[in-house]
Amino acid sequence: MTPEERSIREMTREFADGEIRPRSAGWDDHRRLDEDVLGMLAEFGFLGMGIPEAFGGLGLDLSTCLAATEELARGDGSVALSVSMQNGPVTSLLLAHASEELQHELLPGIASGARLVAFALGDRGAADAEDAGDAIATPVGDGWRLDGHKHWVVDGDRAGAAVVFARPDPDGETGGGLGAFLVDTSAAGYRVVRRRETLGLCAAEIVDIELDGVAVSADRVIGRPPRGDEYAREVLPLARLGGAAVALGIAQAAFEHAARYSREREQFGRVLTAFGAIRHKLAGMATRIAAARALVRETAVALEAPGAEGGIGLASWTDRPGLSATPDMARWAASHAAVSVAREAVQIFGGYGYMRDYPVEKLMRDASGTGICEATGEVLRIIAARGFGATVATG
Ligand SMILES: Cc1cc2nc3c(=O)[nH]c(=O)nc-3n(C[C@H](O)[C@H](O)[C@H](O)COP(=O)(O)OP(=O)(O)OC[C@H]3O[C@@H](n4cnc5c(N)ncnc54)[C@H](O)[C@@H]3O)c2cc1C
User: Which of the four, 240, 325, 387, 394, has the lowest number of CB atoms within 10 Å?
Assistant: First the structure.
């Protein structure tokens, strides 16, 4: 860890301990964040961690962004989910493919918290680029008209704008590739039709959107349709690593609660840590977190290394000695760690772990979301396996 990364991690931990953790259970109960939270996140720079300083962001490297996201998730997974969306796919897509005018319009607003940008990729709840196809873009004059639906969009209501992926030519010669369009959420025809109620990450704003003849002018098209699939594939590795950081934070919180409880709770006249079975559980939990964190960090460093391309896969791994992990592997390991560590934490709390009065029950629900949201463990393994030349139907 660089000194900068260490100091940002410590500062974020302090912020999360003071401002987020104490309010997390209440947000879970009420299924929403308090209005002031995003303002506070912006004030401390968390929404613009990955945005260059020239646009008002902190310009942090990927490893440091992920370390801070993990600490925020240790405070609350829903908060960290929003932060990871802004710093990951949204920021990197705008930096790589939006016009200079759009970058100047949007990036300072994201960094200051004035205007979040949602990332609306999936239609039927599938985040894999190939499956995102229900929204249609029709050329009208110099611009476009969007119709259709986008499902399960994080912050799709509170955001001031959304990057909407839609197919410009569903049955045509371009093979139905996607376009990426910037839509103001106040535009006529952009409607939030449903807010989803989830098992975990309950305070996250996850909404379904209807697009009914939304007009998009030519200067608000990102890159060139139909290359949106390519852009999505470029930025999804960052979404994967952001999700991995969220999973690590949830796992770390569950571990810390379980370790503390084990030292305090007495049974048969001894604290729980006197029992080998409990110590072995704690050792296994700590090991799974440390291993996943190392994988996430190594992948982040490799992605930013000179010459590294976004969207590295196993094929490039075999060609590049020293690069031993991909974002898909890292995300899978981190989600797996979160689910198993949170489950063990509930077990260590015994009956109390099953009660809503104690924090590990929520963490177990939140952890389960990290194994599904954005890409499931099964799909991550399929993507990782592509590099081995396996022929896999990704229905
Ligand atoms: C909290 C949360 C937030 C989300 N936020 C967003 C968002 O902001 N934007 C967005 O676009 N989407 C979002 N999603 C959607 C998420 O990305 C999808 O739920 C996820 O990709 C899985 O797709 P699905 O739900 O359609 O499941 P399905 O694809 O129907 O999968 C069902 C089951 O089949 C398995 N499966 C699927 N295909 C295969 C295969 N080829 N081989 C083997 N097994 C397979 C899956 O692993 C799973 O177990 C969110 C989801 C959650 C839970």
Answer: 394
Ligand 1 binding residues, C-beta < 6 A: 121-122, 124-127, 152-154, 198, 201, 206, 369, 372-376, 378-379, 382, 394-395
Identify the domain boundary among 186, 201, 224: 224
109 and 146 housed in the same domain: no
CATH number of domain containing 189 = 2.40.110.10
The residue nearest atom 7 of ligand 1, judged by CA position, is 153
Q: How far is the CA of 233 from the centre of ligand 1 (A)?
A: 16
Share of the chain above pLDDT 70, in %: 88
* Single residue among 71, 100, 116 that ends a domain in this structure: 116
% of the chain residues with pLDDT over 90: 77
pLDDT surpasses 70 at 87: yes
Evaluate whether residue 100 is within a structural domain.
yes
- Residue among 128, 378, 383 to mutate when testing ligand 1 (max atoms within 8 A of CB): 378
Mean pLDDT confidence for 201-220: 97
Whether the Cβ atoms of residue 156 and residue 192 lie closer than 8 Å to each other:
yes
303 Cβ contact list (under 8 Å, min separation 6): 62, 237, 238, 241, 310, 312, 327
If one residue of 82, 152, 154 were mutated to test the ligand 1 pocket, choosing by the most ligand atoms within 8 A of its CB, it would be: 152
Q: Let me know whether 123 and 238 are in one domain.
A: no
CB 173 within 8 A of CB 190: no
Atom of ligand 1 nearest to the CA of 123: 11
Query: Closest ligand 1 atom to the C-alpha of 392?
Result: 41
Distance between CA atoms of residues 48 and 7, nearest Å: 17
What is the residue range of 337's domain?
229-386
